[in-house]
Amino acid sequence: MSIGIFDSGVGGLTVYKTISEYFPKLDMYYLGDTARVPYGNKSPETVTAYSLECAGFLVKNFNIDTIVVACNTASSYAIDAIRKQFGVNVIGVVEPGAKSAVALTQNDRIGVIGTRATVRSESYVKALKALKPDVQVYQTACPLFVPIVEEMLIETDVAKQVVQMYLSELAGSGIDTLILGCTHYPLLKDRILEKFPHFNIVDSSHAVLECIKELNIPTEESGIRQIYLTDESPAFETLKNVLAGGAISKKVAL
Questions:
Q1: Which positions does UniProt annotate for substrate binding (predicted)?
Q2: What pTM, to 2 d.p., does this model score?
Q3: Helices 234-243 and 13-22, interaxial angle, to 10°?
Q4: Residue pLDDT, tens place only, 73-87
């Protein structure tokens, strides 16, 4: 089995890391669309077009069995189009994350943080209410989280202050479970729990891993690991070294 993973940038490497650690012999190919990051401020039509190009690159160039859409914005807007166009398994991050949150919550109050586009799409609201109609969902866009992660400001007072600013209102709504609705955000998990230790945190990378386990497909491959990006990015390279060890990245054109 081989898996292709794509994201608008570096955040999806959190998903890549989780899957690769559990399945060390799985062939994996990652594409970061760094030339067009972020997707969170693009229109649904543009996000869908970009996502189809990314998925197409993975399917056409590698023997892909499963595509993981490791971008919440792309999962919110483009997942159906990808499933329709390519004859492979397609796993997004929204549905698995919603499933995990519903299983975790004790009071049916769930918070969602993400890009403006993900929040605007209400994809998590729809997914959560499809699973549990009475659940109460509270959303907040956190546009500063991505640059904080990509500029490696995770350990700074700035990160702590921004976490407090964005999440205080959510905490006041009485949520007990928080969905990290952007694949960059798991890198801020420790900062979030410092301020709000009572939150049950839903990390989409672990939710996606559970979906892959359920496929029950062979994973005894040669352990190929290849990472591609659409433009040179110092931030990508820095975080890649943190999340993907010494993997070498190659620049490609879609």
A1: 7-8, 39-40, 72-73, 183-184
A2: 0.92
A3: 20
A4: 999 999 999 999 998
